[in-house]
Amino acid sequence: MSVMNTEHEKLVHKLKDDSFHKEYEEKYHDYKVGFIPLVLGKFLVFAGDLIYGKEPSYGKFQAIEVIARVPYESWEMVSYLFLTALYSNEKRAINLTHTSRFGRMAQDNETMHVVVISKLAKEAKQTGLIRFYLIPLIFSLFYFIASTILYIVSRKSSLELNYMFESHAYEQYGQFIDENKEELKNKPVNSRFLDFYGRPCANQYEFFVSVRNDELIHRNESLERIKVPRA
Known about the structure:
This protein has one domain (3-226): Up-down Bundle (Ferritin), CATH 1.20.1260. Helix 4 (58-68) packs parallel to helix 7. It has helices at residues 3-14, 18-26, 35-52, 58-68, 70-86, 90-123, 130-153, 155-185, 192-197, 204-226. By secondary structure, the chain is mainly α. The protein has ten helices and no strands. The chain is 80% helix and 0% strand.
């Protein structure tokens, strides 16, 4: 496990503490994003609610996680492209490398989410070729293009767009946990991929709490990256 992954898992564990979780959650709770990420973020949330409903569900989470990987992939790609031309600027090279590493770690994390949740969605019979497979892929293509262009033109806007998307995911997981806490504690989560990733969970409650905390970390880290200068 990489250093970034190790630090991430330590933070996920710390967020189990209610007082620390509240402090960490409130850190950027009232952050105001710019106009473009606000419009694009609201569109993504509206379209998702229109297709999958406002209430959280396994099927909706599967769609969310397919899309959630995209900005991190775009940031990693753009960072490597910039490094091809800007390697002689050490300060910028360090910043770009940090972003690419964060992008890779977050991609792997979101991949774990979608692989495990897709299995849970199948068990809950919340599947379908068009609604739960093709539509998320179409959304992903749109999000990838938007995130890539924004990152090249305005890195801050791309990061703020991800802040909005991750905020929505965090809220949806929180609602799902609050409404189904006892039921989730009695449901197993058997996944070879979860074992491969290295995150043992005794039941679905522990799993979804950890996923919720992942999204909160991604939300906050997106804004932390804004503070890092380009050069």
